[in-house]
Amino acid sequence: MVLRLLSKTVIHAYESTALYHELYKGLDPERVISPSDLERLPFVDKHLIKEAGARAVASGLNCVAIQNTSGTSGELLFLQRSQEEFSFIQAFYQELIRRIAPTGPRAILLLLDVPGHGTPTPVPTTNFVLQSSIVSKFGAARTEQILKNRYDMEGIEPHVSSLAGSLSQIIILTNYLESENSLLPGLEIKRISVTSDYMSPAIRRRLARYWRCDNIVDRYSLSEMFGGASSCTQCGGFHFDPILVPELVTLGSLKVTRSGSGRLALTSLYPFVQMQPLIRYLTDDVFELRPSPCVASSYFYLGRVGHCLIDTFGSQDVLISGSALYDTLDEYPFVVRQPASELAGQGRTSTGKPFVRGSQSFKDGRRLVVLAVAVHPDALFSAHEKRKHEEGVRTTLLRRSPHMRALVSGGEASLAVEFVTMDDQALKTFDRQAVIWTSA
Questions:
Q1: What is the architecture, at CATH level 2, of domain 308-439?
Q2: What is the C-alpha to C-alpha distance for residues 326 and 330, in angstroms, rounded to an integer?
Q3: Over the Cα atoms of the chain, what is R_g?
Q4: Which residue, 96, 122, 146, 336, is most buried by CB atoms nearer than 10 A?
Q5: What are the backbone angles phi and psi of residue 214, rounded to the nearest 5°?
Q6: Of the candidates 44, 49, 3, 87, which has an alpha carbon nearest to the alpha carbon of residue 274?
Q7: Average pLDDT of the chain?
Q8: Backbone phi, psi, residue 79, to 5°
Q9: Mean pLDDT value of segment 140-149
Q10: Using omega within 30 degrees of 0 as the cis cutoff, is the peptide bond preceding 105 cis?
Q11: Per residue in 216-264, pLDDT tens?
Q12: Domain 102-224 class in CATH
């Protein structure tokens, strides 16, 4: 399907938007027939699309929805969606459901999300969907009732059997139910699908334990794209949907790489996306391609660019990834995290990322890396316990960071971890989203 649609995607963008017509001047769009042919085309990014405005929008289509990014990188990007693409998506998935729909009663899925990305793209599903959001204790109590209710409807299962939605919402619900010692008789959750944030092994284990569900899928997605990637239990990485074309490019020169780490670029395929085509769109996310037993390429999420310590002065390797950082700190309940709501909790029950900042400097040709981690003021450490935990974080982080470990082993770098306590005002100096690492 990719080969068949890729050429149509490029031709559509070239013929219907002023931006791509300018970008592809002197190129023959009809010669782009395979993913490797994309390398002839320039990249686009959020800044370029935003600056282009109407020139990035396809002509001759009927706009029916506006969607937007979350703004975690500092600016919102607004995207137009057309009736034509919505109609195609409806017809495509309805036909897919007709061919593969299971027999028997439809499962009930509870979708948990706080609207923040504009009008969502409607996608048909085999599930019967209930929807809720939790921004207060009242919302949590309401959601609990939705879970407990028995639904006597013809052709529909009587209880909720699947959860889906943003990771923070599902953690908030879990926090609430645990704190209320809530009993959910008759409830058997068979599948959990999370989006919007990275799920560390510690969080996965916690959700699996509470919901007694091992079928947990982590979905990587972007507001800018229709489609995404799903985590795989066999290889541990992500596999992209066939309606997207992923590329990894080196962090320095932006050259395509087919192994190792790099920045992700995505191409959305026509006719799933028509009004706001994005071809070779540079994301702010870093992945690593690794060998695996799977037929599809296995992409391992390393974190946002600003959450990774990158050797910008040399190899361009990821020295410490954001995922390694979160995988390590999520094991420590006393680390301070950003709350997502009044129910977010703290420590191990918090929904947010750890408050952490890192710096690197150079002295006599040696790289000095320091990681400051905010811990709760009421964490009662002796000096010995504090050093022990700091060394535990350092050791685990190096184990998960082979490039940094090699530099430290060779005497070319040092890594120090410092636990710091601070009041709420001081916490504001810890960047919440975009950048963890700074260089002196």
A1: 2-Layer Sandwich (3.30)
A2: 6
A3: 23
A4: 336
A5: -95, -10
A6: 87
A7: 90
A8: -130, 135
A9: 95
A10: no
A11: 999 999 999 999 999 999 999 999 999 999 999 999 889 999 999 999 9
A12: alpha beta
Whether residue 27 contacts residue 40, with contact meaning beta carbons closer than 8 Å, is answered with: yes
Examine the pLDDT at 337 and tell me if it is beyond 90: no
Give me 45's structure tokens.
Answer: 């990014």
pLDDT of residue 343: 55
Say whether pLDDT at 346 is over 50.
Answer: no
Query: Residue 76 corresponds to which tokens in the numbers above?
Result: 């919102």
Cβ pair 331, 399 in contact under 8 A: no
Written as one letter, the residue type at 123 is V
Residues composing the chain: 440
Token pair listed for 62:
């009927």
SS (H, E, C) the chain: CHHHHHHHHHHHHHHHCHHHHHHCCCCCHHHCCCHHHHHHCCCECHHHHHHHHHHHCCCCCCEEEEEECCCCCCCCCEEEEEHHHHHHHHHHHHHHHHHHCCCCCEEEEEEECCCCCECCCCCCCCCEEEEECCCCHHHHHHHHHHHHCCCCCCCEEEEEEEEEEEHHHHHHHHHHHHHCCCCCCCCCCCEEEEECCCCCHHHHHHHHHHHCCCCEEEEEECCCCCCEEEECCCCCCEEECCCEEEEEECCCCCCECCCEEEEEEEEECCCCCCCCCCCCEEEEEEEEEECCCCCCCEEEEEEEHHHCEECCCCCCCEEECHHHHHHHHCCCCCECECCCCCCCCCHHHCCCCECEEEEEEEECCEEEEEEEEEECCCCCCCHHHHHHHHHHHHHHHHHCCHHHHHHHHCCCEEEEEEEECCCHHHHCCCCCCCCCEEEC
Give residue 16's pLDDT: 98
The CATH homologous superfamily of the domain defined by 1-78+235-305: ANL, N-terminal domain (3.40.50.12780)
Ranges for all domains in the chain classified under CATH 3.30.70.1350: 308-439
User: Is 383 in contact with 401 (CB distance < 8 Å)?
Assistant: no
Q: Given the structure tokens 């395979």, which residue do they identify?
A: 34
Q: How confident is the model at residue 89 (pLDDT cuts 50, 70, 90)?
A: very high
Assess whether pLDDT exceeds 90 at residue 431.
Answer: no
Hunting for tokens 């013929």 — which residue is that?
15
Which residues, listed in sequence order, are joined to residue 131 by a DSSP beta bridge?
111
Q: Retrieve residue 132's tokens.
A: 């809720």
Q: Are 79 and 68 in contact (CB under 8 A)?
A: yes
Phi, psi (degrees; rounded to nearest 5) at 231: -70, 150
Residue that has been written with the tokens 């184990």 in this structure: 399
